[in-house]
Amino acid sequence: MSTPLNIIFSWFEKGDIPTEYQFKETFSSFRHLDEKIRMDEVMGLNEAFQKTLPATTFTNHLEDESAHISVLAKRNASNLTAANVNEWKEKLKIKFAATIDEGEETGNVYTKEQIGEIVNRFQAKDDELLERIAKIDGMLASNDVNLDELQEIADYIKENRAQIELLKETVIGSNSDDKINLVKMYSNWGAVTHQNQFNDLVYDKIKKIEDAASSEKMKHEERVRGDSRIKHDLDTLSFVIDAYDTVTLFTIPLKVRRIDTNTIEVLFDSLPPNIIQITIKKI
């Protein structure tokens, strides 16, 4: 084992007399020129060799004729000859295409034959469209009854577009049917001018007919527009109740409070946008 330098230096300070042991330890701490250094004693040498390529790999690269600049094209094509360029055009099938080599927009352009083929395709499409337009003109000029009815429907849609838009909003649940005007007048039914009034009258008439025809009342149906007190006359506190939106047909959650055996109160979390159908069945 070698002796550290600071200890060796302390043996040879001014006035010191080094001993035989100290001389021996001093010279034993250094390598003699005749003593060769082994490779495994060089720090980091093995790791450095791990990062180098094997000699066979380097030799194979040198002997590979297709791996050198003499046979490879540079990215900027600076080492291509005119013959090389023509060979590339032949391979890419652009040998006979025109090219623009100057200006901002360089590259290949269509040949005269290619442009002619494109124009012919456009012309064929134009002819097809003209033929279809002629057929439509002929249909519109005819006295076909179905076409006349279709025209009447189109006219009705144009005249009643505002009402149709209101109806469409009702279907998607963003509006109420109390804004939709009736197209015709129903004087025998009283002063009804909106769709919701007409719907309520029709429903009430049907319900009265059903109630009169039933000897023992087992269910009660009613339509409401929000929190309501309902007199069902089923004479029971035991029943099942169903509620759904008459426009969207989705089931609507609600709270039910039994007031007595013939009356309940229904409460909604929020005001429904459409009429709600309530069905109460006695159990």
Poorly predicted ranges (pLDDT <50, ≥5 residues)? none
The description of the largest β-sheet is: 3 strands, antiparallel
Order of helices and strands: HHHHHEEHHHHEEEEEE
Record field, number of beta strands: 8
Distance between the termini: 104 Å
The strands making up the biggest β-sheet line up spatially as 3-8-5
Count of helical stretches: 9
Average pLDDT reading: 77
Radius of gyration: 50 Å
- Helix percentage: 40-55%
Strand content: 5-15%
Basic shape? flat
> Would you tell me the structural class of the helices and strands?
alpha+beta
Describe the structure.
This protein is α+β, with helices and mostly antiparallel strands. Among the domains are: 5-49, no CATH class; 214-282, no CATH class. It is built from 9 helices and 8 strands. The chain has a 3-stranded antiparallel β-sheet with strand order 3-8-5. It is flat. The N and C termini lie far apart (104 Å). 5% of the residues are buried. The model has no long low-confidence stretch (mean pLDDT 77).
Describe the structure concisely.
With 283 residues, the protein is α+β, with helices and mostly antiparallel strands. 41% of the residues lie in helices and 14% in strands. It is built from 9 helices and 8 strands.
Defining key terms:
3-stranded antiparallel sheet; single chain; 283 residues; 14% strand; alpha+beta
